Amino acid sequence: MRGERGQPSWLNYEHLADAIPGGVLAFDNEGRTIYATDRAASLFGTEPSELIGRSLEQLTTSEWADVARMHMRQVAKGERATFDFFFLSAAGTETWARVSMAPAFEDGAVVGVVAVLFDISGERLVEVKLREAELRLREAAAHMPGVIYEVRVVSDGRLLIEYVSEAVKDYLGIDADTLILSHQDAVPYLHPDDLELVRSKVAEATQTLQPMALEFRLVGPKQIHHLYAASSVALSEDGSVLISGVAIDIGDLKRTETMLRASQAQLNAVFDNFPFECWTLDLQGCYVLQNPASRARWGMQAGKTISALSLPREVLEDWQADIDKAIAGEIARRDLVIHMEGRRNHFARSLVPIRDGEVLLGVLGVTVDTTEQRRLEEQLAHSQRLDAIGRLAGGIAHDFNNVLTAIMSCVRLLERRLDGPPRRELQIIRDGAQRAAELTRQLLAFARQEMVEPRHAMVDEIVLKSDRLLRRLIGEDIELVTLANTEGWEVVVDPVRLEQAIINLVVNSRDAMPRGGRITVRSRCVDQKQSIASVDGAIPVGEYAVITVEDSGHGMTSEAMSRAFEPFFTTRHESGGTGLGLSSVYGFVHQAQGYVTLDSGVDEGTTIGLYLPRAFRDETETEQEATEFPASPGGTETILLVEDEPLVMSVACQSLRMSGYTVLQARSPKIAMEVSRAHEGHIDLLLTDVIMPEGGGTELAETIRAERPSIAVLFMSGYASERLSIEEGKVFFLPKPFTPERLDFQVREVLDSTLPKD
User: Fold this and answer.
1) Model confidence band, residue 624 (pLDDT cutoffs 50, 70, 90)
2) What separation, in Å, do the N-terminal and C-terminal C-alpha atoms of the chain show?
3) Partner of 38 at 20 to 30 A CA spacing, among 124, 397, 550, 677?
């Protein structure tokens, strides 16, 4: 930019000012700017016209304005001046300029000042940095844990010490001055195993005069020191080579490095052998590491993103959203379901940011296959549901057994009193009661509380025996195939209940094939080497006699399979099914310490397996034959009857008295003890219920035996005999419901087996 017209003639040399590499300013004698070149204006971050008319105070701080005026006064005397000048640009940038001022003459008088400004901000910055570096270097040298050195390489291979810092004493135990003044050779202090490496490096540096770096060991009086040396190499005036540098103790670093390698090896071992899938991502979402479990599942390669996986779009979107969340510094957890290889797989996935302090480095991911856990949880829930239903069913059946005992006993007592053949009405009541008793047995079988008579039994014999009955139960349009091959294996079961279980399964299969089909009943030996799933848990390893009933019927839905063994659940509403067939099978098998399996699918038929543990007969064991209940001769003994159910109490008391016995009654264990202590005569038999609201029959028996050691005990209950626990003496048990004949027979049997013989 040029000055305005009317300016002094000495400003006609603008072309010379533009050629100067610095910026040019011209001031009048009052210190106001009257001329500025573009370069000068750019230093101030403005245009030349903006500088015209400004005073020194408007160009810089008052302090630096004073400095400039001082030099301008010197120039006004006709002298020249050079000085450094500081100001702030329009943008606020700190700027340093080296200013050369000269007077401007007109007619021999000084009429102004011409100043040339050179930007030296970079130089000043370098100077500042150099001063700071020098200070830091001095500070570092004073506190440096290593050694500063200078050695001269001589022709015979020696390394003469020209200079060494005081820190050398910590390594060699020798003062620095001693080493310097004597120009000792550094070679003897080097570890023998490192000499060849040091000589090779020195020879190379001597030839190339290039910087040298190496690791070596110094042998001190007490220990060996591991050092790292960085050196410069220079040729001295006499032609010898000087090597100058710093040697830093890296012993701790080496030990840390060793520990890190060991730690890394341990981490790799854990990472590679972790039972779950582990992987890491960088901040771009690319895979970095994968352990073998993760590679086997997903096959992802390093450097690839999640989008490379062959997974459904919605799964990839959720996965990417979790990755983005983790990269943003948050923890992302999700349970997900993925259909893979034709099955439904459950996973629990966690993505955790990897940090170094506050710096985010990447993402660690862990994926756990929870498919088996979910299956076990569902089995547990199913088992707990069956157990709860079983408890309810058992309680209902127990109360119902009390009612049936009263009904059946009353029918038998009425038949005794009536002359002639039994009336049809009584027969109907008796038949109905027997049918109800069968229903309660099925409920108790499901609840595993039914009275059973287990004994050693040949599975093949029971299967073959069932075959004859089964062929009369199924229609001609159904083919029945029976295959018995357990090689003589035995199990401990109630044979009647096992046969009933097979019949229930076959009847269910028949009803599932309204248009005919094929049913296969098979028994076989299985030596189970690993556990497999049953309907409510895992079947442990062991030897089992397995009975399977397989049909070609319409099969079950997943919902029907989940409820198949619940009591009262049935899909045969039209045919009047009770829903107790499979539930009673389930209860019976579990009571026999066995397991049930179920395999079915819509239009794929159904296969139900009964896994019964193989039993080995003790040579001393003998089988007990089933006992009939002929008419009892009765007796005159005294019986203490304890029963909380009034109906059972009434009919039992009436039946026993009709047989000649003296009966003492009690509604609870507490009352029974009071009756026993109040009765001065002999009590021959305690006939007690097992389960009562105010106490158990077993505890009552133990208490009363302490006072009457010779008393015989007969328990009665609708629950299983496994609930009994008597420390001494044989346990006698009367299952409910019972008839007067069975009551009289069993009372007489207990008395005859326990009372002393005449």
Assistant:
1) very low
2) 149
3) 124
pLDDT reading at 597 higher than 80: yes
Nearest to 686 by CA among 737, 631, 745, 637: 637
The model's pLDDT over 342-395, given as tens digits with 9 standing for 90+, comes to: 677 888 888 888 888 888 888 888 888 877 777 777 666 666 665 666 666 666
The residue length of the chain stands at 758
Q: Are 242 and 205 in contact (CB under 8 A)?
A: no
pLDDT value for 682? 92
Residues 6+ apart with CB under 8 A from 752: none
Report residue 726's pLDDT band, with 50, 70 and 90 as the boundaries. very low
The pLDDT of residue 425: 65
Q: Strand 662-666 relative to strand 638-642: parallel, antiparallel, unpaired?
A: parallel
Q: Report the DSSP beta bridge partners of residue 691.
A: 696
- Find all residues with CB under 8 Å of 525, minimum gap 6, and list them: 485, 486, 487, 489, 543, 544, 545, 546, 614
Ramachandran area for residue 611 (φ above 0: left; ψ -120 to 50: alpha; else beta): beta
| Distance, CA of 49 to CA of 493 (rounded, Å) | 116
- How many of the other CB atoms lie within 10 Å of CB of 224? 11
- Give the list of residues 6+ apart from residue 292 with CB closer than 8 angstroms, or none: 272
The residues, any chain, with a CB within 8 Å of residue 685's CB and separated by 6 or more, are 637, 638, 639, 640, 711, 712, 713, 714, 747, 750, 751
State the Cα–Cα distance between residues 7 and 106, nearest whole angstrom: 12
What is the phi/psi pair of residue 127, to 5°?
-60, -45
Buried b (16+ CB within 10 A) or exposed e, 589-610: bbbbebbbbbebeeeebbbbbb
pLDDT at 187: 85
**What gap in Å lies between CA 152 and CA 148, rounded to an integer?**
14
Both structure tokens of 159? 């390394």
Within a 10 A sphere around the Cβ of 747, how many other Cβ atoms?
Answer: 27
Say if CB 704 and CB 695 are below 8 A apart: no
Phi, psi of 95, deg, nearest 5: -130, 135
Task: Give the DSSP H or E segment for 320.
Answer: helix 313-327
Distance CA 221, CA 350 (A): 55
Query: Based on C-alpha coordinates, what's the Rg of the chain?
Result: 53
Say which amino acid occupies 636.
Answer: T
Q: What Å distances lie between residue 522 and 249, 402, 526, 548, 677, CA to CA?
A: 81, 39, 12, 5, 60
Residue type (1 letter), 481: V
Distance CA 397, CA 496 (A): 20
What DSSP line would sit under 543-600, residue for residue? EEEEEEEEE-S----HHHHHHTTSTT--S-TTTT--S-HHHHHHHHHHHTT-EEEEEE
Contact indicator for 302, 289 with CB cutoff of 8 Å: yes
Q: Measured between alpha carbons, how far is residue 741 from residues 358, 436, 450, 656, 720 in Å?
A: 87, 19, 21, 10, 21
pTM (predicted TM-score): 0.38
User: Is 70 exceeded by the pLDDT of residue 151?
Assistant: yes
Q: For residue 708, give the 3-state DSSP assignment.
A: coil
